[in-house]
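Listing S7. Sequence submitted for prediction.
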Amino acid sequence: MNQQQFDALLALGVKKNVSDIHLEVGYPPTYRVNGSLYGARMEPLKPEDTLAAARLVLGKQDVGGNEVDRSYSIPGVSRFRASVFRQRNSYGLVLRVIPFEIPTVEKLGLPPVIDRVAQAREGLVLVTGATGQGKSTTIAAILQRINASERLHIVTIEDPIEFIYPISQSLIIQREVGSDTESFKHALRAAMRQDPDIIMVGELRDPETADTCLKAAETGHLVIGTLHTMDVVRTIGRFAGLFPNEEQTLARGRLADVLKAVLSLRLLPRADGQGLVPACEALLTTLSMQQAIRDPAKTHELMSIMERSSEDLGTQTFDQHLLEMHNKGLISLDTAKANATSPAMIERAIALETEPSSMGGKRR
């Protein structure tokens, strides 16, 4: 596989609006479209094909490692986040499509609460979700909104760099783990000496990084980080769990003091079959939420507090957002129930809205 052939495979994926491109020995090039995988009508790839592709992505870097993440770009087409790995004595690649243009919050279909999150200028914001659920895109949309309107210094630490921010009002430094810096924790410590207003940390992986994020938030910076957790409650437990057992009570207290918001994301199939739409669970901290974060025995209460605060603050649970999305016709009932914390609640709420009222007609 030469560069022209490799770039053509990637360009085809961009044209077909795929999210990911898989290149693995024994299979044809495979594309993920709206959550499902489809193989191209081509011959299965051979070990020399994926080795050549790995060399094109890694450039001068040695291909001898077992796994490495890098960015790759085709001018005028798109950027890609490439994961290169070894499997069964050959190389495989998965490339995530990263468009040149950063989508807006409105275009992504994110809820209005994101506007409040984008207005924070100190503290800690956590954006969570499984791999491929829109964390990086959501953060990019938030940072670009800030970049277009305020004169701030933003430092991002990524593995690898995904979206490239255009020159606008803010000054943005983007550092890639592996090529620009040794690790997240080293870059984060260095960022504290670089006069930052906002620091974005691509992933909180260890206690040192989590501790430094807390210190940065405690000293008046806005820190935005990601965790691979499925919802708000599990995010609090996971963050505390990054620390040794004897430090978790203190970590919870520090987190409660600086946490501004948690956004948990899931991409769901649209009811019309035209792509995916984000569901979002959103927490904006209040005094009662801080108490629930500090005490592990009360953390489960965050769900009911978010529900009660939805009208005043715009917070919401997944179930609240799923019900709203179903009522707007964005997702099917089956999709809403499959992703709900309480499928029975979703069914009851829909039944109450559609049952005939005493005056005739349906409740709406």
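Caption to Listing S7: primary sequence and predicted structure tokens for the chain studied. Confidence is low (pLDDT under 50) at residues 356-364. Residues 3-98 form a domain with the Beta-Lactamase fold (CATH 3.30.450.90).
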